[in-house]
TrEMBL record, chains A, B:
<dbReference type="GO" id="GO:0004664">
    <property type="term" value="F:prephenate dehydratase activity"/>
</dbReference>
<feature type="domain" description="Prephenate dehydratase">
    <location>
        <begin position="3"/>
        <end position="182"/>
    </location>
</feature>
<keyword id="KW-0584">Phenylalanine biosynthesis</keyword>
<keyword id="KW-0057">Aromatic amino acid biosynthesis</keyword>
<comment type="pathway">
    <text>Amino-acid biosynthesis; L-phenylalanine biosynthesis; phenylpyruvate from prephenate: step 1/1.</text>
</comment>
<keyword id="KW-0456">Lyase</keyword>
<dbReference type="InterPro" id="IPR045865">
    <property type="entry name" value="ACT-like_dom_sf"/>
</dbReference>
<feature type="domain" description="ACT">
    <location>
        <begin position="195"/>
        <end position="272"/>
    </location>
</feature>
<dbReference type="InterPro" id="IPR001086">
    <property type="entry name" value="Preph_deHydtase"/>
</dbReference>
<dbReference type="InterPro" id="IPR002912">
    <property type="entry name" value="ACT_dom"/>
</dbReference>
<dbReference type="Pfam" id="PF01842">
    <property type="entry name" value="ACT"/>
</dbReference>
<dbReference type="InterPro" id="IPR018528">
    <property type="entry name" value="Preph_deHydtase_CS"/>
</dbReference>
<keyword id="KW-0028">Amino-acid biosynthesis</keyword>
<dbReference type="GO" id="GO:0005737">
    <property type="term" value="C:cytoplasm"/>
</dbReference>
<protein>
    <recommendedName>
        <fullName>Prephenate dehydratase</fullName>
        <ecNumber>4.2.1.51</ecNumber>
    </recommendedName>
</protein>
<dbReference type="Pfam" id="PF00800">
    <property type="entry name" value="PDT"/>
</dbReference>
<dbReference type="GO" id="GO:0009094">
    <property type="term" value="P:L-phenylalanine biosynthetic process"/>
</dbReference>
Length: 278, 278
């Protein structure tokens, strides 16, 4: 039975993504205490796979995931899944949400609900936690002046009540999760996506040159994200997703050229693509 | 006397940047409680200028700043300054840093010290705060089991001792701050930088087309950063910095073309460039 890790504890959005992923696959789900711990456990063989949040349509990429995949581990993305995310305000039984003065939540959820917090709860102090479930736990402990933001299922687990649903700044809120493991996935789909990370020479036109390679081979790009290269300001590494599988001749040829024109290049995986128009 | 806002309270890196900026300019510094509040106060005329953290060489752009400049205010960047950032571990007098079990800090500083926290303080629980100064204040209140990470000057303000300096994951750590106001800056330097934000059509090659415009006019790009466009996954807006001033004929012509080829375009300012090779 495969062991699959997620950012725990019970009641996180990551747990929900992991539960959806393992439908029909006999698996043991393991709640981990941080994203780094989860990814390193896969690298060291203590877990077979991990389900990890990768990017959100409001708050953007999860920086720590990008940095660890680029620099600290050697893992492959073998699948992706996209979940609609409804951020829920949870309070203690008997409380009124308008009266709370403390809100506990993870920074990603806080980032997705910035306008709500500013406009509807200007008096409330924000306490950032390591997971939304920990936030719910803290809200429970702090009583009727406290609330938590996160996935609705945390309310039941921690004995809170749902006060408001869909409090994120835009109803259209999705998080894309990726499944990572030590071995690449086989090509089993005719709709695939390939993820790479690279850096280019620090001179004019070097990023344009890479993007032109994809244009030349008519390859669609569905994600581009820059991260600092951890040295000097103004030097970046780029995370790009393209349509197609590493074993498609055009993708293979384009990536051969990309590799030639970059100073750092890492293949992160080819995997079945989920409806890309979320 | 001009009123200049920064993310307070006393002892933050933003305060240090603001103090450096106002050398020789008679000014009143005003500590604000959030970055949004600071930028909105400039927009509404309650402050003349604000000094705001924009990007860090380890942790990347400050998402909330990019989102507010793109969507919520109509302000101009009129200056930039880059500071070396030394993250400091501060503890209560009489404590041993190896024994602390709680660390209080802002998410940006936590992101810059991820490896240190994981390797040197694996037993310590991380509590995220709204500013580093608030973290130092919390560490003081929580006694010898608690520590804070932030700017060294917070130690004196909050009665803590410096246990370790330069604990960020890479000694080479810089934060770039920008000064924003309601009116554009005059062209007073021969070394300038121009910042824009835009989005392109969702079709292959549309970002490559924009970057090719800068190549065509031989304009150097010193920053590119993508942010989700707050609607669908896979749609982005791009923040780009180029060398040169809006009033330079080449920059003017290139940006005229960029404007024509983008679906959303906003000019964020032309301002004197600081040594770009930090």
């Amino acid at each position: 039975m495969q062991r699959i890790g997620f950012l725990g504890p019970e009641g996180t959005f990551s747990q929900r993504a992991a539960l959806i992923y393992i439908t029909d696959k006999p698996s043991e789900l393991v709640g981990m205490s941080s994203i780094r711990e989860t990814l390193l456990a896969v690298q060291h063989g203590e877990l077979d796979l991990a389900v990890i949040p990768y990017e959100n349509s409001l708050e953007g990429s999860v920086n720590v995931v990008l940095d660890i995949l680029a620099w600290e581990v050697d893992l492959h993305i073998i699948n992706e899944l996209t979940l609609p995310i409804s951020q829920t305000l949870m309070i203690n039984p008997g409380a009124r949400w308008q009266d709370i003065t403390e809100v506990f939540t993870h920074p990603q959820s806080a980032g997705q609900c910035r306008l709500f917090l500013e406009k509807q709860l200007p008096q409330a102090k924000l306490y950032l936690t390591n997971s939304n479930s920990e936030g719910a736990n803290q809200a429970k402990k702090n009583g009727i002046t406290a609330g938590a933001i996160g996935a609705e299922q945390a309310a039941e687990i921690f004995g809170l009540e749902v006060a408001l649903r869909d409090i994120q700044d835009n109803r259209n809120n999705f998080t894309r999760f990726v499944v990572v493991g030590k071995n690449p996935a086989h090509n089993t789909s005719d709709q695939n996506k390939t993820s790479i990370v690279f850096s280019t020479e620090h001179k004019p036109g070097s990023l344009a040159c890479i993007l032109d390679i994809f244009s030349l081979w008519d390859i669609n790009m569905s994600k581009i994200e820059s991260r600092p290269s951890r040295g000097k300001l103004g030097r970046y590494i780029f995370f790009i997703d393209i349509e197609g599988h590493m074993t498609d001749p055009d993708v293979r040829d384009a990536l051969t050229m990309v590799k030639r024109k970059t100073t750092f290049y890492k293949f992160l995986g080819s995997y079945p693509r989920v409806d890309s128009d979320k």
